[in-house]
């Protein structure tokens, strides 16, 4: 079994079950704007590449809607207050992170969630295990570009050799490829195995503990 020195995790759908709070903030903003609300399953398929794209998909007409920016701003305001209402780590995640930390591994989060929310969630749920948490910022290209992953490695003081990327979406698969890292695709998140396989996934973890002994293609 392949053992890695550095583990870089996606956040939503990988470490945290955030769908309920994302859907609630989406529908709060849509109600405020007098727009049709979305089901949780619709929101599930909208997430994965940052909250701005989530709202582009949720708002009729997307960026062309004249009320897009105001509605998106209302989403952000609501989510920053309510991002912890129902969000929880997936079963087995805290134990996985603590065991990796015990083994001396370096751990980071790289997310397309906006920076302040990524930092807050990392501090709240993983204060003793996650060393670096990077979210969306205007000064750095978001995933699937490799920039945030490379920045996480820089902050960790870790080389690409011996590092692995772990996520739950097609964006994560592309991010790993663009970063030159092996990828483990988790099956408890927002996308199923069939979808992930169609988008190039080759290594899977059905439960968090499997990551402790996973192999991943380089």
UniProtKB/TrEMBL annotation:
Belongs to the HAD-like hydrolase superfamily. CbbY/CbbZ/Gph/YieH family. The keyword ATP-binding does not apply. The keyword DNA repair does not apply. Its EC number is 3.1.3.18. One of its GO terms (molecular function) is phosphoglycolate phosphatase activity. It comes from Prevotella multiformis DSM 16608. One of its GO terms (cellular component) is cytosol. Pathway: Organic acid metabolism; glycolate biosynthesis; glycolate from 2-phosphoglycolate: step 1/1. It comes from the Bacteria. Keywords: Hydrolase. The gene is gph. InterPro entries: HAD-like_hydrolase_sf, HAD-like_sf, HAD-SF_hydro_IA, HAD_2, HAD_sf, PGP-like_dom2. This is phosphoglycolate phosphatase. It catalyses: 2-phosphoglycolate + H2O = glycolate + phosphate. It holds the Pfam family HAD_2. GO terms for biological process: DNA repair.
